[in-house]
């Protein structure tokens, strides 16, 4: 995919603030610090379009990035931060639920997990939530550069099994360091536009 333009359009908290129009959207979900911002930046060849490592306690927003004026990446706040209060967690859940269940333009959710470790309880909850609402999901197992090539298959299997992934959902190994998996990820997204 040749990227000609990538810009943030809006940081939204409420549906009234979501961008108007019918362009397809892909939401990006993942545990805080998993490498979500790095994934977005690598995919669109920008060093810092998405801010890396957003701290808990900051305003939690859905960030809409317009790509090539033809679709959106929607960065959703990371989950699984131990220090987040119950109130913040509930606000997060409500915002996510509203977005995931009402947004017709949402084509798929890209769920980012860490290839090095088995998916966490929060990762499983997120995946189950998406499946509960029948949302197509692409799982990206990132930081592949940190796992020896000989172990990729084994780790990939653990990710699939721990999340209990449905057969239709794709699992793609990725590295924001090396760019591995980038073409595959774009192909998967383009099939869903
Ligand atoms: P976010 O909180 O999910 O947006 O995570 P970030 O994108 O900020 O990444 C968290 C940390 O992981 C940063 O120090 C990144 O440099 C590092 N990181 C992200 N992706 C990769 C990757 O594919 N390989 C390696 N080696 N490090 C990565």
From TrEMBL:
GO terms for molecular function: GTP binding; metal ion binding. Its cofactor is Mg(2+). It comes from the Bacteria. Coiled coil: none annotated. InterPro entries: G_ENGB_dom, GTP-bd, GTP-bd_ribosome_bio_YsxC, P-loop_NTPase. GO terms for biological process: division septum assembly. One of its GO terms (cellular component) is cytosol. Keywords: Cell cycle, Cell division, GTP-binding, Magnesium, Metal-binding, Nucleotide-binding, Septation. Residues 22-193 form the EngB-type G domain. The keyword GTP-binding applies. Necessary for normal cell division and for the maintenance of normal septation. Belongs to the TRAFAC class TrmE-Era-EngA-EngB-Septin-like GTPase superfamily. EngB GTPase family. This is Probable GTP-binding protein EngB. It comes from Anoxybacteroides tepidamans.
């Amino acid at each position: 995919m040749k990227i000609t333009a990538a810009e943030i359009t809006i940081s939204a908290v409420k549906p009234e603030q979501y961008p108007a129009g019918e362009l397809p959207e892909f939401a990006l979900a993942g545990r805080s610090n998993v490498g979500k911002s790095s994934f977005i930046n690598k995919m669109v060849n920008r060093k810092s379009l998405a801010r890396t490592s957003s701290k808990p306690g900051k305003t939690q927003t859905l960030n809409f990035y317009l790509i090539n004026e033809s679709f959106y990446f929607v960065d959703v706040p990371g989950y699984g931060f131990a220090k987040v209060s119950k109130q913040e967690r509930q606000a997060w859940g409500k915002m996510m639920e509203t977005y995931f269940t009402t947004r017709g333009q949402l084509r798929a959710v890209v769920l980012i997990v860490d290839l090095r470790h088995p998916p966490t309880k929060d990762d499983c909850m997120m995946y189950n939530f998406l499946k509960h609402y029948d949302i197509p999901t692409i799982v990206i197992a990132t930081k592949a550069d940190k796992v020896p090539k000989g172990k990729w298959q084994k780790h990939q299997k653990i990710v699939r099994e721990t999340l209990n992934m449905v057969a239709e959902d794709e699992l793609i190994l990725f590295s924001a360091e090396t760019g591995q998996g980038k073409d595959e990820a774009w192909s998967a997204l383009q099939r869903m536009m």
